[in-house]
Amino acid sequence: MQKSSEEIIAFISSLVHKKENKDFILKETVELLKENFKKYTWVGIYLMEKEDELVLGHYLGKPSPHTRIKIDKGICGAAVRERETIIVPEVNEDPRYLACSLETKSEIVVPIMRGEKVFGEIDIDSDRSDAFDQKDKEFLEKVAEALAGIFE
Ligand code: SME
Which domains does the chain have, with CATH numbers? Predict the structure, then answer.
């Protein structure tokens, strides 16, 4: 059954508050996002490793060649460095873009962080151009804020 954005945020927050297993929460989050938003073609969570590298964890969609991304590379790296959500309406027009699939047209990357500390990020691709708006940004930032609760 389809869930609303509010229901998804409440559900993830409840898992975090109940101190469910971290890996389970990340997996549930990817599934909820992929199942409830048709335009979210690829949904994945990267986690920070060694201060300067992102490592792909749970994802749904085609396998990505970018399972490890240095933070000086890609849209993913830029979001870590800037500690800001990045929306790319046309990936082929952004020189930072690292291609995951030929069908991808637009992307949003939302850091999971507390203060200045980045724990990882939610990365979503769409086969539609300009698929992500302010509503997606606000919603996904709330999801990321809830997820930050599972990290020390
Ligand atoms: N497009 C990302 C790389 C990850 S794939 O989309 C899964 C980037 O430019 O950093």
Answer: 5-150 (3.30.450.40)
Average pLDDT across the chain, whole number: 96
Atom of ligand 1 minimally distant from the CA of 73: 10
Q: List pLDDT tens digits, range 35-69.
A: 999 999 999 999 999 889 999 999 999 999 999 99
Ligand 1 contact via 78 beta carbon (within 6 Å): no
What are the CA-CA distances from residue 143 to residues 25, 32, 130, 149, 152 (Å)? 11, 11, 21, 10, 17
CA 73 to ligand 1 centroid distance, Å: 9
Please give the number of the atom of ligand 1 that sits closest to the Cα of 77.
10
The pTM assigned to this predicted structure is: 0.97
